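Bumping with the actual sequence this time:
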Amino acid sequence: MQNSKGELAISLIILLMLSVVASFAITPLTDAHTPVWQIPTFAYIGASPNPVGVGQQAIIVIWIDKAFPSAAAGNDIRPHDYTLTITGPDGAIETKHWDVILDSTSSQYTLFTPDKVGNYKLDFKYGGQTYIWSGSYQNDTYLPSNATTTLTVQEEPVGGPPNFPLPTEYWTRPIEGQNTAWSTISSNWLGSSDYTVAGSPQVVLDFQPDGTAPNSAHIMWTKPINDGGVVGGSNLGVQGNVFYTGSSYNERFAQPIIMNGRLFYEIPYGNSATGGGMNCVDLRTGETLWTTNTTGIGMPAFGYLYSYDSPNQHGVLPNGLLITNNFARSYDPSTGIPTTMNITNVPSSSPVNEVYGPSGEHLRYILTNLGNTTNPNYYLAQWNSSLVFGAGTGLSPTNWYSGTVNASLPSRYDWNVSVPLTSGASIVWSIYNDLMLGRTGSLPGVGSSSPYTMWAVSLKSGSIGNLLWTKTYDVPAGNITVLQGAVDPVNRVFTLVYKETMQWIGYSLDDGRQLWGPTPGQTSFDYYQFAMIPFDSLPFGKIAYGRLYSSAYGGICYCYDTKTGNLLWTYGNGGPGNSTYAGTESGWPNWPIFIFGTADGKLYLLSGEHSANTPLYKEELVRCIDAYTGKELWTISGYGGYRTRSGMAIADGFMVYCNHYDMQLYCFGKGPSSTTVSASPKISAKGSSILIEGTVTDIAAGTKQKEQAARFPNGVPAVSNDSMSAWMEYVYMQKPRPTDATGVPITLNVVDANGNFRQIGTTTSNADGFFSYNWKPDIEGKYTVYASFEGSESYWPSHAVTAFAVDQAAPTPIPTAVSQTNLATTTDLAMYLAIGVIAIIIAIAVVGILLLRKRP
């Protein structure tokens, strides 16, 4: 309600501004006045809605008819001294005062929520002022004025704007602007990291906080990223050898981006994962929208969506931007054409840490020591991307990317404060408008005996730079290496890891004290991941939903409560539905599993390793598990490679990754379905049966790909969620056709001749997508039949309609009674006919004998 009111107020102000501009167009400017002018003003006040319900929010807008000469968004030429007095029906008075009006149109609005029924008197007074700025009107006086109105408050609430529901059918972008609730199911994937930069820990989150994610293994489309799979033939080293997958330093699909329903990724070139340009495809269909050469500019490192508000512009920058490393260059996501923007001198030297701001801007925290090691003099500054490019930087509002911009100027920073830190300070993690976690010195390793210090500095307005706490920790016994773990801003916990024992320890973000741990050690094969953390510069573990997830080469996913350190569940070391057992196929006891993505309360795990031999191990899987319980939701054949160099993207309810088994991109998500229905005979007699039959098919874009269309000329049957994984492997991965696949449930309803809508039965389609149902209509007349598939986790619903008619049954013939007289006559006639026939037969016989006697 509050947002819609604010939007209405903005619209009103814009209208006022237009009228003011028009008035200035017909008012000639003159030289300075002698004597000075006494300029009358006219005050206005309005409230909306009026009447309004008690407890509902109203907007009160106040303004004068004069917009001051030369007033603009970039200066301070404004009316002063506005006072609004609100007198309630009980005589209670509330006063609001504005020393300076921020809007250049001389308009001001405020939100008011009445708590009593009755009439509220609204009194606006403008105190008047002298025009103090230079120009033709300098020293002229704008006279005071006032206006009054009444806001009527009633018991019953007044109707607000319509609340359009979430979609119940397959949907696409763009999302119509009134469907604001759809923001809860739509999302973007602007990059897989939190955009920390060189010199600071590269915290790969792989976390999608918005929208939905796939609940089944249904495939929307596939698309080759380069030749993959079995090469075929002989003399290729080993039988069944496959094309190079890029393992482990040239893996494809490393940093995919999704914005506004478009997927962006780098095209490989030869042996390298890079150099082939950038591809943009439709997320829902896999259709290539454009391809561009990135030579000389570079590949985008992240997507940028920024909400900019000014008197002349509101909303998110159209199309957004695809921005290269360190903000250097950018592309228009809708066309792939490079912009003219060229950002220079972006602060990136260590220590630097980066987070999102509230409107999508990137905020970099720079810690600088202006002293020396014996006498450190630290300063902490917040660099703001929205002050570097865009209309808020002094560039033309019509051209946000005009030429080269120097990002190091003081005007590009929000603030710069002194912080009381000692030498060797570095940044670990930053939380916007909260705190910065840091460390002084290095974490201990083998042979180290020096304590280490952690600290936190405030990032809250009013206390920025204040040291919240500092705490020194002893080195753990036994020559243990301590590594940096992830941070949970919700439960206020940061973690550390003991490398050799693979144990976790949790500490308070608010005071640095140890909260829990060390936890029991993880499976021994996880050592290979812990040992590589210094090499990868990755704080270990993934945090979401108040839980810490750890999963690596040991093939077991551990879930810890970040408040207590308690192990909540494990996945991979159980029975069916909870097993990653590799059997005799692999040198690993369990398939290594890595968390490639977290979204919508689910973890998406892929198997792979740092440098895999070929042919790749068979039977590795893509896995989706419940992030709260560890329950396996679905799996499907797939190999993901090594997480730090191969990626995943999740947005708008879809998940995309590169399957190394065939080097194709696979997009999973809930897709459209199609239902058909017919009835025969079209016209029947009452008492006869009607046969209702039809099909339910999968019509995702992938089913129209050349291979799938050729193999399924009548369409790809829709199947049940339980059958989905094996069925998708059959449709897209050349696996055998499942013999136990089941279809989807169909509900059959009719509107009969009396206009009654009623259900006549249910049935289930088979693995060919076909269904049938025999029904005997119970009344005469025309019937309309509705066959409905209500949808599933894999498909959106669909339905089809047909009709038939039932006529009155033909009458049954009634036998005619025969009288005794007629019966006697008939009997006599029959007797005479019989005697006549016998006589004829005798006569024929006599003639035959006589003819025989006459022969010689």
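The tokens above came from a reply further down the thread. The chain has three domains: 2-154, 207-668, 673-807.
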